[in-house]
# Entry
Amino acid sequence: MPIMRASNSHSFLSHAHLFVLCLLLFVVTIQASKKRASAMYVFGDSTVDPGNNNFIKTAFRSDFPPYGRDFLNQAPTGRFTNGKLGTDFIASYLGLKDLLPPYLDPNLSDEELVTGVSFASAGSGFDPLTPILGNVIPIPKQLEYFKAYKKRIEGVLGKQRTENHIKNAVFFISAGTNDYVINYFPVPIRRESYTTLTYGHFLLQHVKDFIQNLWREGARKIAVLGLPPIGCLPIMITFNSHNVFLERGCVDKYSSVARDHNMMLQHELFFMQLNFSNPAGAKISYIDTYGPLDNMIQVRQNLGFDEVDRGCCGSGYIEASFLCDGISYVCSDPSKFVFWDSIHPTEKAYYDLFLAARPKIDALIND
# Structure
């Protein structure tokens, strides 16, 4: 009888071991069947610029302290935050690289280039006037850089492999905030010709043109980020509050423009998806930034934030770029702040935005 019990026990353990092995094999097979991105390419403004502006003559830079305070070795890389951008978290999540580099960095190797870069430039926008105001890289020029990038990659991979590589890559576009915040509202030129509604249509035509051009270059997985609640940016509150120190609520007059813009953008992207010749796996997605950022502000303490209406750098009311420099006061814990300076989110806020976008990212990369 003891021998029989030992035999049964051994048989049970063998079956259990086999079951676990089958389960692991099933999980690995399912994960392997998920299609991953071959590379990641990013276009837009300071929300996704990891340092391209370091290599051009512009005042819109952040390659100096205290920017990068929580980055590796406290290095100011040109990212307009204290650490990583949302696109860095995405690149890491996709298994491509820990940090998405700027295309204009002359030290990038071919191996680094192949898995993706950002062409974005802080201060840029879809309105051709916007990058002129800051002497930064226009979005059409960013596309020209991408074309030059493709030629360089063809020299590494060959033409056919490059086409497949681009087809399986993901493309992210994040721009539009500057068109309103540093162009339409403070500068009267566009307001003489456009209402906020018609200006939105003007911008969206440029968005559509850009997406169509990316499509012609082989892009098949494209994500476009919506605008944030621009009336909640500390700098917008500062310039539109009756009492800068005591009345620091979001200015809905401006945030409502962002909401309207996002509604029109989603509508346009939906019909672009329908109208494009749509090979298997081709997608154009909208990623909401308004809702998650607004949520951080409205239910701050539930998400671990204490300060939502001013930045961590300086007074937090007006400082950004060269106004946030090495002699500026800096808060002790940026993770408690939604904003790093008066315009840009902290690394913690960018991470939360990434988490909110992750289901859309999964849907974009998986057939």
User: Anything to note?
Assistant: The chain is about 45% helix and 10% strand. The longest strand covers residues 40-44.
